[in-house]
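Q: Joint fold for the lines below.
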Amino acid sequence: MNERSVSIPRTAIAVCLTVPFVLPFLFLVSTAFRTREDYIGSRVGLPHTLTIEHLRYAWTSARMGRAMVNSLLTTSIAVVVLVTVSLAAAYWFLRHRGPISRLLLIAIASLWVVPYVIYLLPLFITLSDLGLTDNLFILGFLYAATNLPFGIFFMYVYLQRGVPAEVREAAEVDGASSLREFRSIIVPLATPAIGTLGALAFVWAWGDLLLALVTLQSDDKYTITVAATTLATRTDAGVQEVAAAAFLAILPLLVVFLAAQRAIARGFVAGVGK
Amino acid sequence: MAPALLLVVLVILYPSSVAAAKSFTAWSPGYESPWVGLANYRDLFSQPVFREVLGNQAFLLLGLPVWVFAPLFVAALLYERVPGAALFRTIIFFPAILSPAIVGILFRTILAPEGSLNEVLRAAGLGFLARPWLNDASLVKPSIIVLLAWASLGTGVIIFSAALSAVPPELFEAAEMDGASWFRRFVHVLVPSIAHVIIFWAVFQVVAVFLFIFGWIWVLTRGGPGYASSTIDYDIYQNALSFGFFGTAAAESVVLFVIVLSIITVGILGSRLVRMRAS
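A: Joint structure:
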């Protein structure tokens, strides 16, 4: 950032730019937390009342509470599996350098551009033959697997830059086993990358609609996006109940965003900037 | 390494190959799938609906200049002399991590015929501008283009800002000393200095329009009105899971894969060309 004087026109434009990024969320919150009469009176005006009636409806009758627990379960599995498997695989690639392993790495990374919808149908048919649809654990593993091509490549690039060759060589000279080297050297060094990939996995798994829609059938298994979108397309649910449901779906992401914003931004930059 | 390979092969590689193989059969899960050669592909391309879907995808690509230049402009704006630039970037970036499906719920309400956008327009005396944004066949695609611009702006700004911070500031200062206007500096100094990142972002945006748009369409329009906003991924879902045309859906997935692969190939060649010119 340049240290010269503040530019008023630039700053004014920047302030105006943020308006369309703030207003929709203010509208969402105000719709979700005002009474029905207040909303009908003036839908876009400032709220004069406060009620958690819609939130309670969304939480219990629309079963968003249940959906949130389901989403937390699948998302946690996705985060843990994606981070662990990516890190281990990236470490393997770091130790086994050669033309064949390099080719394998490129092959895996390029699977990132295979569209979901291509493998979704055979996957769904196989899963239902095995009786594994409608299963939140399986869904968590699917989230991890679909993001592995990115995860492995991201971790590999990080380790290649972040772990100095001398550190690995020193560990090998001292006779550290590779598992011990992995735990005592690689994992601590890779902590920032683990944070980034973990946050990205959370965001992706929490926000997915397609995989959940295809593999889940019973409504007590619905994840938060499926439950909220199902409610939104039901005719008996009002705008305010839907807003409350959307609010519940967004809230955990806001927490993750505020906690890991920099880490997520790093991941996005790495994902596209490579 | 073994768990990674196992997951990737079981979840991505093997099912993808099955889909590709089944695209040449009259695929009906649970029954025999007799070989039909290219019949699924011929069917697909003779369907008026599929042609409309391809047309929709092409129309959405008209948004590309906006998706690329809007974040570039904002990144340039926030580059210097704006206090709290990081805060502005944060606010704009938040939608990028939200689920398209959930954001879609929000905008379904806002853009509805009696929704809040039209209400604001009427209240401001601009009622003649009020439209059924998502229910009108000629407005639905432009509306989606704007929503995609809204959702991707923050990511673009973050990426371009990171690229700009890696450019030596003397480059920009020298141009300013020479008395070049802001626009000239933008076109002749800023854009060329991060040209490779701009190309990557453009390719990513084009690919995203083919790969990651399902959530938006499902929640906002269900492909409607008619098929006016149906995209390839949404059409594949419908063909397979709503209508049971699995063979057609498999052929359509292969077509989608070929399209994405071609875009990426063109993107890689393009960025090579830019780098060759630069050196």
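Q: Anything notable?
A: Chain B has one domain: 49-278. Chain B touches chain A through 86 residues (CB under 8 Å).
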